[in-house]
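Homework help board

Subject: predicted structure for assignment chain

Our instructor gave us this sequence and asked us to write out the predicted structure in token form, then describe one feature. I got the tokens but I'm not sure how to describe them. Can anyone check?
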Amino acid sequence: MNPTTNVERRRHRAKALLKIHGTSEISLFVDASPYAKQRAHAAVAVDATGICINACTVLTTKIEEAEEVAIAMALTSTKHSFILSHSQVAIRNSTYNPNETVPALSRELTRRAAQGVPSRPHKSLTRAAAGACPDEDATPPKTPPRPPKLAGTRRRLSVCHPMESVILLNENRGTGSTSSSGAASAEEETLRLEGCLSAERSLLDFVRQYPSQGHTMLLYGASGSAFIYLAKMIAKEDPRWEVHYVRMKQFMGRSIGRDCQRELESLFTEGKDKIKMLFFYLLDTIYGNALAAEEIDYAQRFKTELPEYIKRVASTDKKKLAVVASARKPWLFPNDLQSLFQKWVHVGLPGSAERIRLIKAHIGHVPCSLSDSNFLQLSRMTEDYTYSEIGNMVEEAHLGPFKRIEGATHFKKVDNHWEVCSPRERGAVQLSWHTMKPTDVKEPLVYGDILDGFVKVELRRTDKELAEMETIRLAHLEPKQDNNPSDRARNS
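My token output:
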């Protein structure tokens, strides 16, 4: 959902998602989206026909509170029994209990009760899409059931702390703790991003030979997932370093009203027992137009002071401090900042063979009827796609089995599992997926589902941005190294 105030587009999306779940008159779709450059969210509740039942503006910067208000508006309806949401936030709030309401929801219900607006608990809160907010470890709702096979899909690369702005990645290294994602996390660790191999070698040389190769480095490329992968790789591989991962978007939002110089002094303190690496994730975001109005003043002061601090790191003989920044649009940096990065490294996109492995990894253990020729064709179609865009494509494709299962009226037994069939097929039994055990349902992912996902996921880069990236890459070419042919990946 594009986070804008385009009400018509939001209604169209809601109507399409409700169509997936049937045209039931007892269903509502809730959604919340941030206003562009404002500290507010739009909360809406739309019925099965696409008509807005209720809408309001929530003066908050937290999507959770806006979602809660949207749910509260849906709860006031007395004729709708199901709430459908595309957001993982709403799923976390699915265990609605009148005695255990979250603050924003409680305030909204209290206000509406004072106005005499009726409200009642609903039967269920169900998700309208598989894999929404893949970086969050939220528990899916128990009602209605979902096919458990989809739990085998690969999780995204993330840094686990969704609310922190500066994260010490080394904290979880070697602890032996296991996460709730189980096998999915293990699969994530074993899947190596081959498009990053050249950048990985350059970064490893930088840290192993530090400080002979300098104190500052810029990683640039289209894939944000690749930057996360490289930061986690250094934190895991080299025990001499402690990686302080700075997420610029969260850092800007949490530093408003604070002393900019004091914040920078705290960031740029030298390491004590280990070499400290400041890893700025997507530093270019503060040089674009995506900042909120209240963040502009602090960001301006930050941009003024930052080059001075990086210059000190690059020009002094500090032995325990290095700066590594990552950027999708490095051409946004002013010339004085660009000149401070002593080493520029391009982070490539996945190669042809790796794209096939990525698609298979994101499909996971879900039954799949795709042939080798189908995977090869998908690899060609996604030539300019990043790791996250390929993941988004497959996640959209996972809606296909849900659509067929939820819309089916007849099933037949195949290998002790129920599969969707037409009423005239031999062995067809009239059933509803609500009355079946999740472990008994089986519906394979087909090639058409992936194509649907491909159509829905658009590239986030314009032709102008691609040309700018190519200009930057040619200006900072590194000497070619002899690679193992099996490890080669496309770096442009």
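Reply (TA_rk): Your tokens look well-formed. For the description, you could write something like this. The longest strand covers residues 27-34. That's the kind of observation they're looking for.
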